């Protein structure tokens, strides 16, 4: 078996969750890094990582690495890869780069060098070259230049993996699906106990919870760039995919009790659309009330929620205070004996809950440093 070197990126703070997911899938040499995990495996392992990891945002396969002091070194290194194994000249590629302490000040020049080296290789062999396509390129390439080391990856997913395909309309302040799934996995939820999100927005937590409980692979409804590559092992991919489909069929309907609430009618409308897109029309009970007054249809064992904390929603301070006060009262009154996990990017607001966090996990939500806070609510 040829061993491939992979690199999966995730939200900062979810590295340990992703590492556990990868190990459970059979990945080798799993090593958590900052915002990522490195791992090894055969081709099928790469496909499984794309299809099954809930917390990964990208999966990349390393194609080559080497020392580069200047343009010529980078050009030569790029030429050591046989690019025709991935695509034909009729397909498209795109190159994204990151640069730190290297011969180039920014990514523009080295990205151009890599593009020229690839296109020249095609032209030398066939007289034709692939085009660069920003929109859904067949071969998304990532160049990492750090000091005198360059690494070239190809990205297996294409579109980021958090794009599961169930969400057409975006809520004003949605939680990234992969982040939501990773946070849910961090709670240690048993996939059976009742769950609620009292400020559910577009219901990301609830959809991810339902898919987790139903054993549905998060990537089942979407396409991946690797499906368009020439050296993809289609038999291995078919096997991985068929197994995921069979598991989803066996697990369908295994949803535990799930409920969500939001005071905004537009949020509920978006949540309903997303639930339908995820094949979960009847799996989640939704209500539209102020959390302050909301009585969920059952007592939850787990509460997961992402209240506003004054970033993208740009709420007035008083309205923020009211939301957190309402959440605190809801937890005290309606959730005896539950574990509540709350994502917060503003520590001052958490005081309004009137509860003491028993665990605090640092997590990055977009540009904001947040905490995933656990509260154990007293039983009656
Ligand atoms: C950051 S968004 C949640 C986003 C959600 N996690 C998602 O993925 O779409 C916060 C949500 O809390 C809701 N909210 C704020 N205060 C509320 C309250 N007092 N009662 C009910 N909903 C409230 C807002 O309407 C908003 O949809």
What CATH architecture of the largest domain would you give? 3-Layer(aba) Sandwich
Question: Helical amount among residues, as a percent range?
Answer: 25-40%
Radius of gyration: 23 Å
Structural class: alpha/beta
- Which consecutive residue ranges, at least 5 long each, have pLDDT under 50? none
CATH topology of the largest domain: Rossmann fold
The oligomeric state of the chains shown is single chain
- Count of helix runs: 10
Question: Averaged pLDDT, please?
Answer: 95
Distance between the termini: 57 Å
- Biggest pleated-sheet summary: 8 strands, mixed
**Name of the CATH homologous superfamily of the largest domain:** Vaccinia Virus protein VP39
Residue share in β-strands: 15-25%
Q: Which molecules other than protein and nucleic acid are bound?
A: S-adenosylmethionine
Q: Largest sheet, order of strands side by side?
A: 2-3-1-4-8-7-5-6
Strand-helix topology:
Elements: E1 4-10, H1 15-25, E2 28-33, E3 36-41, H2 43-52, E4 56-67, H3 71-79, E5 92-100, H4 108-126, E6 131-132, E7 139-146, E8 149-155, H5 177-186, E9 195-197, H6 204-213, H7 234-251, E10 258-261, H8 265-277, E11 284-287, E12 302-305, H9 317-334, E13 339-344, H10 347-350, E14 359-365, E15 368-376
Parallel strand pairs: 5-6, 5-7, 9-10, 9-12, 10-11, 12-13
Antiparallel strand pairs: 1-3, 1-4, 2-3, 4-8, 7-8, 13-15, 14-15
Helix pairs in contact: 2-7, 3-4, 5-6
Bound molecules: S-adenosylmethionine.
S-adenosylmethionine (SAM) is lined by residues 171, 173-175, 199, 201-202, 204, 262-264, 267, 290-292, 306-308, 323, 326.
């Amino acid at each position: 078996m040829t061993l491939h070197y992979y690199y999966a990126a995730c939200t900062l703070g979810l590295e340990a969750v992703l590492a556990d997911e990868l190990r459970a899938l059979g990945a080798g040499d799993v090593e958590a890094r900052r915002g990522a995990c490195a791992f090894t495996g055969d081709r099928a392992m790469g496909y499984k990582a794309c299809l099954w990891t809930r917390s990964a945002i990208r999966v990349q396969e390393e194609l080559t690495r080497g020392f580069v002091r200047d343009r010529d070194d980078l050009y030569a290194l790029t030429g050591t890869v046989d690019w025709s194994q991935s695509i034909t000249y009729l397909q498209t590629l795109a190159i994204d780069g990151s640069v730190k302490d290297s011969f180039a000040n920014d990514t523009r020049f080295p990205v151009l060098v890599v593009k020229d080296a690839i296109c020249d290789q095609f032209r030398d062999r066939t007289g034709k070259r692939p085009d660069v396509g920003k929109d859904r390129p067949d071969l998304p390439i990532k160049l990492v230049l750090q000091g005198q080391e360059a690494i070239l990856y190809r990205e297996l997913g294409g579109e980021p993996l958090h794009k599961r395909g169930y969400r057409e309309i975006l809520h004003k302040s949605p939680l990234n699906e992969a982040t939501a799934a990773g946070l849910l996995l961090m709670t240690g939820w048993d996939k059976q106990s009742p769950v609620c999100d009292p400020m559910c927005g577009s219901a990301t937590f609830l959809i991810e919870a339902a898919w987790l409980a139903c054993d549905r692979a998060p990537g089942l409804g979407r396409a991946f760039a690797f499906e368009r590559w020439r050296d993809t092992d289609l038999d291995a991919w078919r096997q991985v995919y068929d197994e995921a489909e069979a598991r989803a069929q066996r697990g369908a309907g295994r949803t535990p009790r799930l409920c969500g609430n939001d005071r905004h009618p537009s949020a509920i409308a978006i949540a309903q659309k997303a639930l339908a897109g995820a094949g979960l029309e009847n799996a989640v009970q939704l209500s539209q009330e102020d959390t302050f007054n909301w009585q969920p249809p059952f007592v939850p064992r787990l509460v997961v929620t992402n209240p506003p904390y004054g970033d993208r929603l740009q709420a007035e301070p008083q309205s923020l205070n009211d939301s957190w006060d309402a959440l605190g009262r809801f937890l005290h009154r309606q959730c005896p004996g539950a574990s509540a996990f709350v994502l917060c990017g503003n520590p001052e607001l958490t005081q309004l809950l009137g509860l003491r966090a028993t665990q605090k996990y640092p997590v990055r939500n977009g540009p904001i440093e947040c905490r995933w806070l656990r509260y154990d609510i007293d039983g009656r």
